Amino acid sequence: MRDQNYQELVRKVTMYLDNELSESAERDLLLEIKSNPAYLKVLSQEKSFRDFIKSKIHRRKPSPALIQSIKEKIRIAPA
Question: pTM score > 0.70 for this model?
Answer without folding.
Answer: no
